[in-house]
Design a protein that fits this description.
heterodimer; A: about 325 residues; alpha/beta; Rossmann fold; 7-stranded mixed beta sheet; 12 helices; globular; B: about 290 residues; 5-stranded parallel beta sheet; two-stranded antiparallel sheet; 10 helices; about 40% helix; binds thiamine diphosphate
């Protein structure tokens, strides 16, 4: 079993680092200081930490106001509220004005667990992808969450970063390269491409192991940046592998799967399957129970691979 | 930095302000007749307050819209673009002829303010209930930096029905942001009728006071009173100030005054001519003034 750590801790640690290196970074929170792990920053930089109370809409727009005078505001709340409750604020004030606001959406995905559907954000990808000027990063583990947060400070304009609640397997290391907007091939292979983000990257790596045991070489792509999407890497994967399975801890419509399909159908159409939450709300349960019940396991990726490989043409082109 | 280093570039006297307010009202009617769509009543009613702001109160440099030492203002009620754009044009942010392309495909003046298109617009707006939150963030950050700027949120009465407006009011009171001033276009009118009939907000000043603000009520057409309220707001320490400017929608046009049907429509060419006659000019005269500047 790999080491387990929380992506939200990567966010929190990175904010404290940013606090030390960049005096413009400020952090806003909506009464969730510990659970979104901005507490590290709060302790070290109380003067640049702003408690906004349970008022997410005001927090979003206040961050916009801070960005206007050169601050780099990171705000943090649960993704369910960041992406849904403040959507109008994000659309009109942040995105239409193209402001330098960084949104940390914690508690994304079904793995949020016992709190149930209200707190399991599974719509942020489709929402954020549809907004002009918005960028979207979905880190796969602690290290990547840290790097994504540092990168977000350097990328101009609105950025949404999604974090989870639970400890998740660490699949990268502190030195694994992270380039905003560029997917990362974690495992080479030419029979099929497994494209994943977030915790599903680990599941995809497991699935690739299983497939390898059957003589199928799966390429595993960690697509941490959903927008802007890495068209070159995806097109090459379609050309070279001829079949794609996407895997995400998110609703099936409009998320990673849709994003990859939009690239693939235009540049090199190949059969695809989608591992995602099948258009339904979550529920209470342990993260483990839920990941299994909602079909977000390595075995689900393997099943999808079997299905798509049957439809794979003999030769691409 | 001294206030005097970063004052208003015009600082008109009372006669100058009166004359500018008249010119601005002529601009509003003219650009709306030309655009054939847009909001008339609110902008006309807010013209006196806006004139005091742009030609007496606010520190800015029209040739350098992002001048770091500027005051900052946010038209939270985005729909009043005619007054916003007229003030920016009259103040010199862009040529007045641009007003004649308001709401047109090849113009830079969008129906609702777009900061990426129009110099002098800090943030895009048009969805009500956000400007005060933006102003809160800017005021908070400015205080953090020890910057002397003042931040103005220009809000409508109707948008005080938005919960997010009260989130911002609560936060600004909590954090004692005395560099923040909200000015409300308190015309008691919204789209569906009188505010008090639609969703009452009275007692307005008391609400603000109970959220720990300094509240000043003023006749929004009385220029000396408006300037005095702005002075009081600046002098008030330890609290943000709201100026509830009692205005008359459509002021002073006889057939527009206090009629909520003028919220969101432009005058027809005939109505425009009548209104401009009441303002002492004609469409031909005023549109050519705009086009030649
Ligand atoms: C969030 C939001 N809801 C609805 C509207 C549509 N709308 C535009 S103006 C307005 C209300 C008008 O009242 P007020 O803001 O007081 O402006 P006035 O009529 O005085 O100009 C509404 C409901 C909007 N622009 N934004």
């Amino acid at each position: 079993m790999p080491e387990m750590k929380k992506t939200r801790e990567g966010f929190g640690r990175a904010l404290a680092e940013l606090g030390r290196t960049n005096p413009d970074v400020v952090v806003l929170v909506g009464d969730l200081t510990d659970s979104t792990m901005v507490s590290f920053f709060a302790k070290e930089f109380p003067d640049r930490f702003i408690q906004m109370g349970v008022a997410e809409q005001n927090m979003m727009t206040a961050a916009a106001g801070l960005s206007l005078i050169g601050k780099i505001p990171f705000l943090s709340t649960y993704g369910a509220f960041a992406a849904c409750r403040c959507l109008d604020q994000i659309r009109v004030t942040v995105c239409y004005s193209n402001l330098n606001v960084k949104i940390g959406g914690a508690h994304g995905g079904i793995s949020v667990g016992p709190d149930g559907a209200t707190h399991q954000a599974m719509e942020e990808f489709s929402i954020m992808r549809s907004l002009p000027n918005m960028k979207l990063i979905v880190p796969c583990d602690f290290h990547e969450a840290r790097k994504a947060t540092l990168a977000a400070a350097d990328v101009w304009g609105p950025v949404y970063i999604r974090f989870g609640r639970e400890n998740v397997p660490v699949v990268t290391d502190p030195d694994t390269p992270f380039e905003f907007g560029k997917g990362l091939v974690l495992r080479e292979g030419g029979d099929i491409a497994l494209v994943a983000c977030g915790v599903m990257v680990y599941e995809a790596l497991q699935a690739a192991e299983t497939l390898a045991g059957r003589g199928i070489d799966a390429r595993v792509i960690n697509l941490h940046t959903l927008k802007p999407i890495d068209k070159v890497l995806l097109t090459r994967a379609a050309e070279e592998c001829g079949a794609i399975v996407t895997a995400e801890e998110h609703q099936i419509y409009g998320g990673l799967g849709g994003a990859v399909a939009e690239v693939v159908v235009r540049h090199c159409p190949v059969p695809m399957e989608f591992v995602a939450v099948d258009d339904r709300f979550g529920q209470s349960g342990t993260p483990d129970e839920l990941m299994t019940a909602f079909g977000l396991r390595a075995k689900d990726i393997v099943a999808a691979a079997d299905k798509v490989l049957k439809r794979k043409p003999e030769r691409v082109f | 930095m001294e206030q005097s280093d970063r004052g208003n570039p015009y600082r008109y006297d009372m006669a100058g302000l009166q004359h500018k307010a008249l010119e601005i009202r002529r601009d509003i009617i003219t650009m709306l007749v030309e655009a054939k769509s847009g909001h008339t009543g609110g902008p006309m009613g807010f013209a006196d307050v806006a004139t005091c702001l742009f030609f007496h109160e606010l520190a800015y440099k029209p040739a350098e819209p992002k001048w770091p030492d500027r005051d900052m203002w946010f038209f939270s009620m985005g729909h009043v673009t005619p007054i916003h754009y007229s003030c920016l044009g009259e103040a010199g942010f862009y040529p007045l002829r641009d007003l004649m392309k308001f709401r047109k495909f090849d113009g830079q003046l969008q129906g609702h303010p777009s900061c990426l298109d129009t110099p002098g617009v800090e943030v895009s707006s048009g969805s009500l209930g956000q400007g005060l939150s933006i102003a809160f963030g800017t005021a908070y950050g400015s205080r953090m930096d020890g910057h002397p700027r003042r931040v103005y949120a220009l809000c409508s009465d109707g948008e005080h029905q938005e919960g997010s407006t009260w989130e911002a009011i609560m936060a600004a009171g909590h954090y004692k942001l005395d560099n923040l001033c909200t000015i409300v276009d308190y015309n008691n009118i919204q789209i569906d009728g009188y505010v008090e009939d639609t969703m009452g907000i009275a007692p307005f000043a008391e609400k603000y006071r109970s959220f720990r603000w300094n509240a000043i009520e003023v006749d929004g057409h009385d220029l000396p009173a408006i300037l005095d309220a702005l002075r009081q707001a600046r002098a008030c320490k330890g609290k943000p100030t709201v100026i509830l400017a009692r205005t008359i929608m459509g002021y002073p046009i006889s057939f527009m005054r206090n009629l909520y049907e003028w919220h969101g429509k432009p005058p027809t060419p005939e109505q425009g001519e009548k209104a401009l006659a009441e303002l002492g000019t004609t469409y031909a005269e005023w549109s050519s003034r705009l086009l030649s500047n």
